[in-house]
Amino acid sequence: xxxxxxxxxxxxxxxxxxxxxxxxxxxxxxxxxxxxxxxxxxxxxxxxxxxxxxxxxxxxxxxxxxxxxxxxxxxxxxxxxx
Length: 82
What we know:
Number of helices: 2
CATH superfamily: Protein of unknown function (DUF2498)
CATH topology: GMP Synthetase, Chain A, domain 3
Protein name: Protein YciN
Radius of gyration: 13 Å
InterPro entries: DUF2498, YciN_sf
Strand content: 15-25%
Order of helices and strands: EHEEHE
Pfam family, one: DUF2498
CATH architecture: 2-Layer Sandwich
Oligomer: single chain
């Protein structure tokens, strides 16, 4: 049986996502979600990826990517954007 998703505003989803980020064991200082959009059934989170000035990834880049992927998996089944 499919459970209906709760509809939240972008602000509410970002607050929830950033609470999860801060409490996660892989949190890095400065890591935060600054935006979220709905793409089909998936919530896509955006924020600072800690790239170098020339756009090259840093070791922090993969940690942020993984965190945003984690948020999508954790929250997309429960919530949708208002």
